[in-house]
Amino acid sequence: MRADLELAVSEFFSNCVRHSRGGRVVVGVQCAPGTVRLWVTDPGSDAPAAAPAARLPHPLALDGRGLCLVGAVCSRWGLDIGTTLTRAWCEVPAAPGPEGRLR
């Protein structure tokens, strides 16, 4: 679970750097029974478009695999695109450790 969340936050944050207009980026996590929800919020882009779909790029492409990776390791994910903020979020099933705490 931890590696899945690390991959998701890395991909979401990279997309913030590449596609947003700059400014404050907020990363959040929320633990609920059986699920961990992660989100990254940024100021959005100057020309917000429809939410991109996870797609497989050409095998020789240098980028474009991030949302496919997030989709492969998370149970759910999505993008909420507004006029002033963009939020990428995902959910990963939580696995309790031996003491009952989330790992």
From TrEMBL:
Keywords: Kinase, Serine/threonine-protein kinase, Transferase
A Pfam family the protein falls into: HATPase_c_2
A GO molecular-function descriptor: protein serine/threonine kinase activity
Superkingdom, natural source: Bacteria
InterPro entries for the chain: Anti-sigma-factor_SerPK, HATPase_C_sf, HATPase_dom
Domain Histidine kinase/HSP90-like ATPase: 3-72
PANTHER family to which the protein is assigned, alphabetical: ANTI-SIGMA-F FACTOR RSBW, ANTI-SIGMA-F FACTOR RSBW-RELATED
Protein name: Anti-sigma regulatory factor (Ser/Thr protein kinase)
Protein source organism: Streptomonospora nanhaiensis
